[in-house]
Amino acid sequence: MAKTVKEIMSTNPVTATTQDNIYECAVLMKQHDIGFVPIVEGRKLVGVVTDRDLVIRGYAEKHSGSTSVTEVMTKDIRTVPPSMTVDECARLMADNQIRRLPVVDNGELVGIVSIGDLAIREIFVNEAGDALSAISEHDHREPSAVH
User: Domain CBS spans what residues (predicted)?
Assistant: First the structure.
């Protein structure tokens, strides 16, 4: 039986809400040493903010720290279900040069799967290695709608 995303994902991710501002999001990233914060309403995923979003869409556009995260968050989010196999997830990440994916079940955020989860757990090492190589070769300009 193939391993599923549920078996390797990080659970209880650090999140922010649409009521938070970009400064609060940046503080969360610093406190938890992360670069990716899902934005939720209750448990429903409505967007994500990356450290890159804060810089490119926030501060480089001269938004103040009090600007709502909704101004900089990515709304068109690629997600995966917890039932997806790890190899399918690795291929999706490699093909789309995605480092982190929210795991959503019935519209609710249940976890995050990252390229590191694939590599650290040594599951499907070839796919994880291929995904990491493909992402590393990318010129570091992630599409704004996919993180």
Answer: 9-65, 73-132
